[in-house]
Amino acid sequence: MKPSALVISAPGTNRDNDAMLALQLAGASVNVMSIKALISSPQHIENSQMIVIPGGFSYADALGAGRLFAHDIIGEISDALKRAVEQGRPIIGICNGFQVLVRAGILPGGSRRVALGPNIGGNFDCRWVRLTPSSQRCIWTRSLNEEIECPIAHGEGRFTCEAETYVELVDNDQIALRYASANPNGSTGAVAGICDESGFVLGLMPHPENHILERQHPQFHRGVKGHLGLNLFKQGVAFVNN
Amino acid sequence: MAGGVGPHLTTHRLTITPKGHDPRVDDVLRNAHDLGLDRLRNVAIADIYFLSGTLGQAERDEIQQILVDPLLETGSWDSCASSNGHHVIESLLHPGVTDSVATELQRLASTAGIDVATATGKRFELTGDLERADLDHLAASVLANPIIEQWTIDTPARPTLTAYTDVDRPRAEQIDLSSATSDVALRELNIERGLALDIEELRVIRDYFAQLGRSPLDVELETLAQTWSEHCAHKTFRAKITSDDGELRDSLIDTLRKSTDDINAPFVVSAFVGNAGIISFTPQRTLALKCETHNHPSAIEPFGGANTGIGGVIRDILGAAHSPIACTDILCFGPPTLSAGEVPAGVFHPRKVRAGVIDGIADYGNKIGLPTVAGAVLYDPAFTANPLVYAGCIGSASHANGQTYVESKPRVGDRIIVVGGKTGRDGLRGATFSSMTMDATTGDVAGASVQIGDPITEKLLCDVLRDGQSTYTAITDCGAGGLSSAIGEMAQELGADVDLTFLPMKYPGLAPWEIWLSEAQERMVVAVGNVAAFAALCDDHDVSYTDVGSFTGDNRLVVRCNGQVALDLGVDFLHHGRPQRNMNAVMPKPNRVVPSTGPTWLTECTPMEHLRRLLAHPNISSKESVIHRYDHEIRGGSVVRPLVGAESDGHGDGVVLAEPTDEHGIAIGIGVNPWFGLVDPQRMALAVVDEAMRNVVAVGADPSQVALLDNFSWGDPTRPSTLGDLVAAVDGCVQAARAFSAPFVSGKDSLNNEFFGSDGQRHAVPPTLVITAIAHVPTVASTVTPDLKSAGNALVLLGSTHNEFGGSHLAMIHGADTSGVVPEFDPRSPERYRLLHSAITDGLIFSCHDCSEGGLAVTLAEMSIGGRLGITCVPTHEFGDNELSIDLFSESLSRFVVEVSPTHVSEISRLFPESSRVIGYVTDDPQFVLPDGSRLSVDELRSCWQGSPT
Predict the structure, then answer these.
(1) What ipTM score was computed for the predicted complex, to two decimals?
(2) Chain A interface, best mutation among B29, B69, B354, B657, by max A CB count within 10 A
(3) Contact between A60 and B100 using a beta-carbon 8 Å cutoff
(4) How many Å apart are CA B340 and CA A125, to the nearest integer?
(5) Residue B801 near residue B794 (C-beta atoms within 8 A)
(6) pTM of the full predicted structure?
């Protein structure tokens, strides 16, 4: 039986469908649910083997990216998510989903705080990047043996934290992904994604769900292949299957 | 602003200041310096959140904890004093302007059990030796926009957060009009109410009501003026036109329609009907196509104008019962390098217009989740006071096997449901509005003629309409004219009885005509049989809806409000009572004699110097910085992107989209050339259709499966020469469409784009026709990009080059913009495009790029830059039949450069016997070598083209 993945949306989520396609291609069965519906029936979290918070502009990014969606999550839903982590069920937050997990205090976890601020260039930026998987702790990245290439599409993706937090995240092997191409947004340490202490929860700014087919690569017409973002989702599915 | 509580509560303010470098500061400083306000040395920007209600320390702490991230920001309550004696400007949105942040803030507070009214503002602390006049100028031109914002200088801003209680509900009023009303009085009425009708139309209205034996109500008159407006009725495109050659012509719309009928393409499902053109794409799928302009709103409020332009064209697609899948944008601005003294009074600097428009498009498209994929950015001094913003959208709908799109029509008895956002004074005529007496409590609630869009509400609308297709029988968007136009159109064969009393309002006090004509965004009208099913779906998606009446079948349109019948008109009179206009055109008489020698300025510098200057011209240089602002990856469908090549920084021709699960691709190509239009409007039209066709063919689309959209931005058509240019352009469109068997399926005209020049005279914008081509790509695996692929390959020019420099970019650079002839349409091009398509399908073509602005030399340079590979051109005597600079820089039509394997050169020559020629070879050595032996490294070429951002 295919692992079941739950994709949680909010008003303004817009890459739910892209995430669904990626998960399906990686071998999961997918259920997309609105946060409103989930709040009235939170048992869907218990019944899912993977949980995904996809990209978009939840609540139009009003009051700061991910802030209001995180506010919806804090409480019953975040408790259910924490139980999922305790039981070893993987969670991934992509772009706006990463911002939500950070604002909700699920990433990086513990008492440390990080933030995703406005890009150093000041604007929304859509471009392709290369990512180096760099964590053995993170179940999403530890078996990845090649770079991932995929686009970013965000205005608030600059990873930032206090210096000692950064050292601790590095020491803990919680830096899951770094930009291998030019740092697009001014992130500290070129960090593109981090995991929590358990390694089950990954948050990342780029969109691996937009590189699930070879033809989606921008140099496809030049014969460039591989480095699929799909590999990341396959890791999550493989982890559940094992 | 979000209202809700009484007027006497304390207003708290939380000021949030970002830590570290604030990139917004750079924009403010640059915009100020563009206007010559060099004394502004620095600025600190903060966001202000106003909360009116009872807040204790605990509530304040809770709100601050949610809103302020200590890693990014600092927050302070109630502080408004300026530090260090700096001047402070604080801005607020006018009440009534969409403020989704304030709405969300109020919702957030209410989830925490805190009942407050909310507003947002911005605070600017200014450093520099600034006089009062500087502060006024900064506030009105850089920091805020008077159209949507108000401000205070050195005093704290105070938003109006009042209760809306006990407001009078205005009634529809009688207009003094009878059979005795004279032409003079009719003209006065026309001006007083800003009806924009002509005397013939006013007389017809007078006589209609005389026959009914009553005078009209204001709602009726406004509705007729709206329905018969140029914007809605396209009076010029439907007029009888007599041209100075004595010819009485079909109306322009009939000319276009007839060409589509005659072409009789099997894939056209619906053309020039309803909200969008519809074509069949695959047996299971139709596409809806539409492009709109939002010129005037974008001139006065660049962000909001462009923002709502995108929102509007997306609703056109929803109104055709298709799901939007991608957006396009074509933008025309004044020169970005204009000095402060060259910007006319009352006009924004082109750089500010550009920044606002691009932000507005990015904000809406990125948030609603649609890729903005194809477009163009053009610069010309004529666009300084009159920027043009074209926004397009493509939609897709799936159908069960054997079925296709059927235009939906409401049935008698269907309920009329208004779904989406609330109604306010949005978009009502500013002139009319300013002469009105405001209600005391609504005070300064202004009906901004431009609004800020709300893409999230529209996204939810998209979802409801997609999931609920079986629950409604007909649908129309609320665009110009609001409900009057949407319900009016839907009711035109049935009649309807509508009651506006319970429609949700942004604020009270609206007169019935204001409600009926409001252009509030993010609303649709649907005809629904089973209201319960539709309502349940709306509830699921958190979308609000109101049942306002039903379709009656009695052919009368009746509108009620607060117990009063505010409108009662026969639908036949409303939609068919307008007398057809008669207009006169003086046709353009362009020079079409090709000179025997090239222009004298052609030899003023070397070909390489010409090329360098062309690559640096803002119309030709890299648009990368704009393209990155738009999400072109969402939905995972981009196969050929707007940026291509080894480093993803080259320009493509068309773009190709495909659902990730589908092999069929949709190619989109754009053609536009106002400079040709200034010289020869008819040839311009042929040329831009040809350009749009080239762009889709170059990426691998099938030229026999192309549908076209036309969008005209023109001057005042009552000037016979301006109308003549329009007639000539329509003639050109139709000739090109017939030549390519590519039918027009939808179009739009925006007339009266005029501005006052430095000579104090009115000028029309250059004739700016945008053609969008949408084409079928049989299989995305065989698409092609223009970047060079590998050394050793041959470069073959398809098509022929002539001494055609009229309206060319090289002529413009040399200040000779009307010299020479505009390139002539090549009748062999349809056949050439078919052959090229089969060569691409057979895999013979490794890269392909068309020749457009700047000619062949620019084409080669772009291919080289995209692939980071060199080119060595063949020597001058083999390169072409003309003087070298004519071959390199003429903008003759119907030409492509293709990269082929040396082993396929003979096959290509056989395929294109009269129009192919090997002009160079691809080299590993990154040097660009022209036929005269002059050379430049590809890096230098690239830095000319990428330049420094302007």
Answers:
(1) 0.96
(2) B69
(3) yes
(4) 29
(5) no
(6) 0.94
